[in-house]
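== Polypeptide entry ==
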Amino acid sequence: MLLKPEEFSQELQKGPVGPLYCLYGEEPYLVDRAVKRLLDLALPPDARDFNLAVLYGKECKGEEVADAVQTFPMFADRRVVLVKRCGELSAAALEALLPVVQNPVATSCLILQGEKVDQRLKFFAEFKKSGVLVEFKRPYENQLGPIIRDELASHGKRIEPAAADLLIGYVGSNLQELASQLEKVATFIAERPTVTVADVRAIVSDTKVDSVFELCNAVGNRDLAGALRRLHTILRDGEAPLMLLSMLTRHLRQLWQIRECLDQRLAPPEIEKRLGIRSFFLKGLLVQAKNFDGERYRQLFERLFELDLAMKSSGGNPAQLLEYFLLEACGGR
């Protein structure tokens, strides 16, 4: 059966562990975390020397996986076979594994882990009948709050909503990096139970990241001198022009959404709720959003699209193209 990640979590809480699982998706951190949780429930650490087999899709044959699944456990109730990068299993390997999927072994748990699977294949169609498939999609930024809270809860800590927003602003949606930074912050606050904005600023703040945010804010405020100064600093430090273009696009898209809300005469609390922007950030963005009207936003996004094509086709000097865009966005030309 197909399950959403939250449904999968509920099933694990209910128990017992089943014989077949396929955990996959474009967010490796979530997949790794789910596999670890499943493995912890399926097989205690002291039983893994004899009862855990870890294989890799491209490097193993279907018969090898099938033999591992059909091997009887030693000194344990269950044997676990984990196949990483399962999307790389050959057609022949999937064919050899089909009998194991159609007739699961009660004393084994087969876990397939990967980035992509083709559910149109007969193998996965049969897998859904006897086992569990769970896809872990990369979360949007407005979905990161619960993940951050769960991660900090594992350290016995809480976080202020504004601090969580600031952390997302610094790190983005890279969950591996988020987890790493949360571990640092949790260590930094020692016995204190709650992570604050000041803690995030002290530990997570990065000069390059700060400069990129300052560049975006300068554009939003139509501060041409400040924007050019920060652009030159960032490029001098080796930041990729395409990354800067992506951040500028994201920032202006957010301002455009706010401007449309303002044109609809929505109050700040309504805008905060509709767009998922915390009041900690919204105040400054409201000021910036008013600096452009709807037609100007459309013009700027047409220009951003042209810049993206030009940079990817090597049609011009990236630094110069970005300078021209800042002149146009801040100066109105």
